[in-house]
Amino acid sequence: MIAGILAGRPDCTISRTPEAKALGIKTGDPYFKICGFCEAQGVRVLSSNYMLYGDMSARINAIYRDATPDVEVYSIDESFHDLTGFVRRDRVALARDVSATVRAWACIPTCIGIGPTKTLAKLANHVAKTVPELDGICDLTESAAYEYWLCRIHVDGLCGVGRASLPKLEALGIDTAADLREIDPRPVRKALTVVGERMIHELHGVSCLGLELVLARRKGCAVTRSFSSRVTECAELEQVVAAQATRLGEKLRREGLGTDHIIVFYHTSELDRGELMRTVSTVVTLPEATNDALALIPAALHEGAPTWREQGSPP
Q1: From the CA atom positions of the chain, what is the Rg in Å?
Q2: Taking the model in full, what pTM does it have?
Q3: Which domains does the chain have, with CATH numbers?
């Protein structure tokens, strides 16, 4: 199935199947620009559902923790495991068992990369995803595989090498991950700061990035949505604000947090021809920190109403 997932304001592509990537659809492409192409190519377009994604991520990480107790949730779809103490045969067998369990219980295919450092584990995962013959698992703790793949993976396959970093590395004559491993760290640090220097050490198998088993306390919490059609009635907008304030309370309670202020905002569509986009926002201060929707909803709906600040030109 050729598919892509949309989100944002306006709707933009945030996730693509390999088939959609092969058609040239890029992350961030606005849907209104590619909708005709998608229809002609039979691309199925889906709206994002972050509550579902968060739930599936929690289920999958529960499976991971049954297999290995030390798990760092790196992002909604990536986690690091500490496999210290497992011999190579047991590591690969464990990886295959975890992958099969996730497929059976969550109906989601996974790819697993194994390496002595986070950078090498991410690189192994990149290889596992792009080489079908590996059946979704790549182990770079084995010396032959380590040497083989580092010479064949372009440096842009490394985590931490983005569009801005790539030209700097190419100017240093670095083409593959093996080239980066062998270069003097000093010019790389000058080009990519300490992040680039750490990357070199990690490619040598020296761990510079430990496993973070305790999540950092969040400093903010955003709950937003885009409308599928034009909103012209205040009552409809207030219903959405109330629903978002409810979701905010749920997210805060889930992490045992509270807030003593909230920011309520909206944007008009940037696609309206002949009208300048407007952003309206207000900051509402609460008497004490709370995660109770019964306090958050009236604050978002009423207490902030007299203090709306409009930025930009009027309609």
Answers
A1: 24
A2: 0.70
A3: 3-48 (no CATH), 61-203 (1.10.150.20), 234-311 (3.30.1490.100)
